[in-house]
Structure formats: structure tokens, C-alpha cells
Amino acid sequence: MSIERMQDAKDSTQKSVALFLICITAFKHEIFDIGHVSTSDKVVAVLFATILVVTFWFLERIVDARLDKIWIFRAIAMGADNIEGVWLDVVRDNGGIRCGALLTICYQDSQYVISGEEYFPGGGAGGAFNTDMSVYRHRKINYIYNATEADGQTSMSGRGYYEFKGFRCMQFIGKFINDNSNRHYEVRGVRLSSVLHELPPGDVRGLSDPVIRYYKKGLRRKLSRVFNQRPEMTIAEKQILTVAIIKYFERFLQCKI
């Protein structure tokens, strides 16, 4: 499935409103023009119909606004194809891992926006990136991106894609191209919430309790995501997680992307 599922939810509400108005129009004589119905009853019927129309219109606006602004409504609409959240990935170049990244996928202005920060295996900052445009369909997102190196002066741009795997989109594989050099890179990523419990305690020492509690697996974590705001990570925490995920892929997946 694809991002069209959220649009379908909006369209369904609009169609319900339209169908109701059509029914009112088609049966207006039966509803309002029955000879033996008193004037007061007709007034009550008109008021009742008006209230229903306003209610349907209001519900339509709520669905439209909530899907755009509240992630839990989008998560319900997208179901197992939901890709929003915090991810960790590694970038492979020339047979080895070039860097890792902590990235966020969120829904803005009717499309998914990917943004993140890269770190090298030793913990040094690699740069930042974000997408300018994306299309998500059938568990695959194609995007156009811009990136800036840590020096703040060197920039690159290009295009790429992620293909999401697992029952609830817990991993992805993909590629991206640096248009400046025409160089191709392979990428593999995993949701932070699905891998945090697998990272050795020594690799993630230094993470704050709010971060650990928020991304920990289980029902309590899911409730935390619904009722609590996502904690902001420090630069040090981002470095810790990125280096940890590089070691994770080196150990368990052996860079076989």
C-alpha cells in the first residue's frame, strides 16, 4: 500500500458528506412537505437536518486536519505500511561501511520528509541531509535529497530510494546517488525502537533514561509514544547510537546489504 491510504481516508469522509447531502436533496419532499405534518414539526426536521449537515462537515474537517498534524491518526490509517519514526542506518562504500546515520522520517505537506545526521565509525561528524521531495508507494520511497558535510561548506545532492521490509516496516534496504560525482552508495536501516534492546549495554552507555524508556520495546513503549513527546537527543547520544549501529551491522549482518 502507499501514502494514498491517507488520502483515501479523507476521500471516504468527503464521500459520506456528499452522500448524506444527496439523500437530503432526493427525499426533501418526503421529509419536509408531508401535508399532515405541522409547521413546528417541519421546523424541527429542518433544524435536525442542518445539525447533521454541520456535524458531517465538522467531522470531515477534523479527519483532514488530524491526518496532517497528529501522527497517531496517520499510523492508524497506514497500518503496517507506516514508516514514520526514528531510524538508524549504515552507508556502505567500496565493500565497507562509510558511515552511519540517525534519521527521522515524518509526514509534512502531504509527503514524507527524511532528515538526519551522519557520523563516521570513530564518532566524528559526517554531515547532515534532508529530502526535498519524495514519493512513497508499495513500501518503497523514492526521494531527492540535499546534504552538507560537517565543514558546512561542501554540499552534495542526488536521488535515492528505500525499500521497507518486515511485517510492520522495521527495516529497509536502498541506494542513493551523489549527482556531483555520480557515485552510488548502498544503505541498510532499522527502526531504533526495534533494535535498541539488541545493542550491547556497553555500546549504548551514555544514553539518557528518557531516550531508553521511549524507544524500549513492549506495550509500555507504545503507550509512551502515544502520550509522551519524543525526547530530544544530544549530539553525544546521536554519536553513541550511530557508532553502535555500525558495530551492530558489522557483527550480525557482516555488511551484506
UniProtKB/TrEMBL annotation:
> Transmembrane region positions?
44-63
- The name under which this protein is listed is SMODS-associating 2TM beta-strand rich effector domain-containing protein
Q: Does the keyword Transmembrane apply?
A: yes
Question: Which UniProt key words apply to this protein?
Answer: Membrane, Transmembrane, Transmembrane helix
Organism of this sequence: Solidesulfovibrio aerotolerans
